[in-house]
Amino acid sequence: MARKAQEEGRTTSRLPEFTPEQKAYISGTGDFFGLNHYTTVEVTDACCAPIENPNYDTDKDVGTGHAPDWPRAASSWLYVVPWGIRNLLGFIKEEYGDPDIYVTENGRSDHDQDPAIMMDMERICYYMMYTNEVMKASNMDNVKVKAYTAWSLLDNFEWLSGYSERFGLHYVDFNDPDRTRYPKASSVFFKQLVTNNGYPEGSEFTKYVENMWYFCHNTTEAEVNGYTGGASQISSLFSLFLAIPMMIAYPLIA
Known about the structure:
Helices cover about 35% and strands about 10% of the residues. The chain has 9 helices and 9 strands.
């Protein structure tokens, strides 16, 4: 920021600077690293271009983009890139002294639509692939991941998007004064994921996930979102898992 301030003709930085004493005082005082992660971007160097109106985006000195084959969720910024979370966890391990890491948010949005997306297969695919990458980071890269938290338990008010995007494992009827909740298919999946503490080898749940792997990697967004309907359909979720043949071998790390 000091360099940016100089480029902008300022005598001081737009941000206050820590003194050496302050840096020493706070160094190593964090109890853990809390990580909210949803997506990944490609970056290019955009350093040192003339800036008329400096802001958060221009301060980064990078341009951002996305690969054309990355699937996108309902949120315009949220692309599904599972390997990104493993790379990021490894970066945190190396860059910040191998701290304990708690994944405090991770999830995928759907559009608010009628009929509601209750068989939210793309969210199931998201959690399946992202948690698999988290376990790779833990078991293969020796990253100290202590916990994983899905975002979110319930549909809620999503900042500038309001109620137009839904992240919940449970559908909330915002037109009902009681705000009635209905479990989506992803809630069944996530309950099994937590109950099994991952994908233990030989378990029925792992077999279901293996059957889902081809579906998640080879089904278009339109086909996935075709699975809509009420909460009564959720009981058939695992029979749907079993109905899809395993076509691609992939290591699931317990």
